[in-house]
């Protein structure tokens, strides 16, 4: 135990809540993450209710984690996807195209789009192909280089605060699963607000699973869950198995509706719509023959997702469309 102490002190830092700034919190899931020998808790903010990693890895350590092979091979998908980040290229492009197809009628325009945390550039490239004038920001060099090599995209590789954009120079800002990865989500939504024109939009997708009663219930019922029925894939996706739960702290925040709303409203955004969903795990939707167990789980997935979308059940994933007031 003693040997772990210097590592804990040097690799992590105690931080206040990234949504409201409060330092008051209660331990939510003890020791769920591990980074360089340090065991980290998920805690819940006493003020706004967001759950976050505490203590947090230091910024350089977290940045290294998010472009590590381990993250890009498996960590980014949290077990939901069977492909690596790179191998998923065509799939991410298709998914982004469908997402934009649904989003554009709600916006009522195709114009200048800024994506923060653009990763390998799949969403931005799908937008460019649909006629958007696109700009991306990506702090991670590995991913920014990939996006620049693969696609004809303008990529700003660097920190958010240093990016040289004029106030109000974009019609729509996008952050897809970027706030939960960011050490400072308040700074992100405030900066995107400045760069988005009055009357322009913000499109956000964030995981909410660790925050959800789904996760809490399954963690509490761990010993009673019929593992043989769930199988190793679902056990891994649901993060209810201790051996799968010692994750590196890639994600630093999981929002729920009130904390995500507070984050955006505090920065000046007006929320137009917030919807919930259940992320779709690949293994339930393979092409070809599905076993009886997979068919039952697939049916269950569709039923639960439908109830979440109808707001009859709590969300495991949140999508928000917000607007900068005129
Ligand atoms: Zn808070």
For this entry, give a set of tags.
Rossmann fold; binds zinc ion; disordered N terminus
Return Rg in Å.
20 Å
Low-confidence stretches: 1-8
Please summarize the sheet with the most strands.
Answer: 7 strands, mixed
At the fourth level of CATH, the homologous superfamily of the domain at 89-208 and 254-323 is Vaccinia Virus protein VP39
Proportion of residues in helical segments:
25-40%
Structural class from helices and strands?
Answer: alpha/beta
Task: Determine the mean pLDDT.
Answer: 86
Ligand list: zinc ion
Estimate what percentage of residues fall within beta strands.
15-25%
CATH class of the domain at 89-208 and 254-323: Alpha Beta
What can you tell me about this protein's structure?
By secondary structure, this protein is an alpha/beta fold. The protein has a domain at 89-208 and 254-323: Rossmann fold, CATH 3.40.50. The chain is 37% helix and 24% strand. The protein contains twelve helices and 13 strands. It has helices spanning 4-11, 59-66, 69-73, 89-107, 122-129, 141-150, 185-195, 213-220, 227-238, 242-245, 257-266, 292-309, and strands at residues 12-13, 25-35, 38-45, 51-54, 56-57, 112-116, 133-138, 155-157, 170-176, 196-207, 253-254, 270-277, 317-323. The strands form three sheets. A seven-stranded mixed sheet has the order 8-7-6-9-10-13-12, with helices on both faces. α4 (89-107) packs across α5. The longest helix is centred in the first third of the chain and has 19 residues, at 89-107. It is globular and about 55 Å long. The termini are far apart. The model is unreliable at 1-8 (pLDDT under 50). The structure holds zinc ion (ZN). Zinc ion (ZN) is lined by residues 17, 19-20, 22, 45, 47-48, 50.
């Amino acid at each position: 135990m003693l040997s772990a102490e210097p590592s804990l002190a040097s690799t992590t830092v105690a931080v206040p809540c990234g949504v409201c700034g409060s330092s008051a919190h209660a331990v939510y899931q003890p020791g769920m993450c591990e980074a360089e020998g340090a065991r980290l808790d998920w805690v819940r903010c006493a003020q706004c209710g967001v759950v976050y990693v505490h203590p947090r890895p230091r910024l350089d350590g977290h940045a290294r984690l998010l472009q590590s092979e381990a993250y890009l091979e498996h960590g980014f998908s949290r077990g939901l996807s069977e492909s690596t980040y790179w191998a998923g290229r065509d799939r991410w492009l298709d998914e982004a195209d469908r997402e934009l197809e649904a989003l554009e009628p709600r916006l009522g325009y195709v114009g200048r789009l800024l994506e923060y945390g653009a990763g390998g550039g799949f969403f931005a490239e799908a937008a460019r192909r649909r006629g958007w004038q696109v700009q991306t920001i990506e702090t991670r060099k590995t991913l920014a280089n990939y996006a620049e090599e693969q696609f004809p995209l303008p990529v700003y590789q660097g920190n958010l605060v240093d990016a040289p954009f004029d106030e109000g120079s974009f019609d729509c800002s996008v952050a897809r699963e970027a706030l939960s990865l960011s050490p400072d989500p308040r700074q992100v939504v405030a900066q995107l607000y400045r760069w988005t024109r009055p009357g322009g939009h913000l499109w956000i997708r964030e995981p909410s699973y660790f925050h959800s009663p789904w996760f809490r219930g399954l963690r509490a019922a761990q010993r009673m869950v019929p593992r043989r029925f769930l199988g190793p894939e679902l056990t891994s996706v649901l993060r209810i198995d201790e051996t799968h739960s010692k994750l590196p702290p890639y994600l630093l925040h999981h929002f729920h509706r009130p904390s995500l709303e507070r984050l955006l409203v505090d920065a000046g955004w007006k929320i137009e719509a917030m919807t919930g969903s259940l992320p779709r795990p690949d293994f339930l939707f393979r092409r070809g023959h599905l076993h009886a167990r997979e068919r039952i789980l697939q049916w269950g997935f569709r039923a639960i997702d439908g109830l979440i979308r109808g707001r009859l059940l709590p969300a495991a994933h949140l999508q928000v469309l917000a607007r900068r007031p005129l």
